[in-house]
TrEMBL record:
GO terms for cellular component: cytoplasm. SUPFAM superfamilies: Creatinase/aminopeptidase (SSF55920), Winged helix' DNA-binding domain (SSF46785). It comes from the Eukaryota. A divalent metal cation 2 binds at D177, H246, E279, E374. Residues 1-70 are annotated as: Disordered. Residues 19-30 have a biased composition (Acidic residues). It is found in: Cytoplasm. This is Methionine aminopeptidase 2. A divalent metal cation 1 binds at D166, D177, E374. The lineage of its organism: Eukaryota, Fungi, Dikarya, Basidiomycota, Agaricomycotina. Substrate binds at H146, H254.
Length: 393
């Protein structure tokens, strides 16, 4: 989930196979009938004891098997480990597993449900212990971020669309934030390549004591070295300068540090133990986004003021938000899923009172195309871990 810079002037069933092992029968010495001190051997069949051995399940496609059923020892794979001095210039692959079943002709509602059903199954959703970290972003074309379909949205994914898929999961409040872009024709391949390469440049530049502005400069240098040929017109790829990556805090997707994607001179340093979303956006437009369109994303503000609420519906809705999401972002579809109805007036009242933050869609100029790639990193003492890096991208 992106952070926007302040304006100046973001089916398968689960199976666990159990194998049974049994002990052999044993001989047991028992007192015989021949008198005191005498004994005789008598074979007594010992009851078989059943030992249950967990055998890992296999993943389905689309994924619906919880990860604890696959990694039965409780040891999970690490992300990609990079030395701080490493200069890994490889480009991550873009054939993301979640992206394979997404095709033109699908409704945005169906795409959102497909992804989120998989997320809930994989992390074995359980209240505040594990679940979705924020609403799945499915921003299209000139919309760079913060669009997910509301109930009743009839939009269908088209062949010429560029789709950003922004996914968040959390375990005990530790959020992993990741994004990739899909296109269904070759015209904008260079745009996607530029943004993906820029994200990798940001990951390489990140590290303990790295200055945020310098990371932004490394991202900008790579991204703006690319051009896109559209018909007879050549356009330079631009960084969307008022969108940023960000640090991540427990149960809070946006921490106190922003990672720019242009060199803004920020001398703030990254520190050991911090989590960051290295998130980059490129555009064929002006490289600047504004709020536009129907809002779907919201989050309760952690340090929200205690104010008297005039609306009964707002009071009731706030209880639902606090109990179900805490400070994790949510969307209107999630309120629908909880059985809430006729809540828009109350929701808007919570926004106006500074208790809930709204995140409207972020849009560049009409006719432009935007792309997004993102990885979450952890700054370990001697190496950084790209938590969201997998075999697929």
């Amino acid at each position: 989930m992106s952070e926007i810079e302040p304006k100046k002037l973001e089916n398968g069933e689960n199976h666990m196979v159990e194998q049974e092992d049994s002990d052999d029968a044993e001989e047991e010495v028992v007192e015989g009938a021949g008198g005191e001190g005498s004994a005789q051997k008598k074979k007594k069949k010992k009851k078989k004891s059943k030992k249950k051995t967990k055998v890992p399940a296999t993943q389905t496609e689309p994924p619906r098997v919880g990860l604890s059923k696959i990694f039965t020892t409780g040891v999970y794979p690490e992300g990609e480990l990079q030395d701080y001095a490493e200069d890994n210039r490889s480009i991550a692959r873009s054939d993301n597993t979640l992206g394979k079943p997404l095709n033109p002709g699908m409704s945005m509602i169906d795409i959102a449900n497909l992804i989120e059903d998989g997320t809930r199954a994989l992390v074995e959703e359980n209240g505040f212990d594990s679940g979705i970290g924020f609403p799945t972003g499915l921003s299209i074309n000139d919309c760079a971020a913060h669009y997910t379909p509301n109930a009743g949205d009839k939009r269908i994914l088209q062949q010429g669309d560029i789709l950003k898929v922004d996914i968040g999961v959390h375990v005990k409040g530790k959020i992993c934030d990741s994004a990739f872009t899909l296109n269904f024709g070759p015209t904008y391949n260079e745009l996607l390549e530029a943004v993906q390469a820029a994200t990798n440049a940001g990951v390489r530049a990140a590290g303990i004591d790295a200055r945020l502005g310098e990371i932004g400069g490394a991202i900008q240098e790579v991204m703006e070295s690319y051009e896109v040929v559209i018909g007879t017109e050549t356009k330079r790829v631009k960084c969307i300068r008022n969108l940023n990556g960000h640090s991540i805090h427990p149960y809070s997707i946006h921490g106190d540090k922003s990672v720019p994607i242009v060199d803004n001179g920020d001398q703030t340093k990254m520190e050991e133990g911090e989590y960051f979303a290295i998130e980059t956006f490129g555009s064929t437009g002006r490289g600047y986004v504004i709020d536009q369109g129907e809002c779907s994303h919201y989050a309760k503000i952690a340090d929200a003021p205690h104010v008297p609420l005039r609306l009964v519906t707002a009071k009731s809705l706030l209880k639902t938000i606090t109990a179900s999401f805490g400070t994790l972002p949510f969307c209107r579809r999630y309120l629908d899923r909880l059985g809430e109805s006729k809540y828009l007036l109350g929701l808007n009242h919570l926004v106006s009172q500074g208790i809930v933050q709204d995140y409207p869609p972020l849009v560049d100029i009409p006719g432009s195309m935007t792309a997004q790639y993102e990885h979450t990193i952890l700054l370990r003492p001697t190496r950084k871990e790209v938590v969201s890096r997998g075999e697929d991208y």
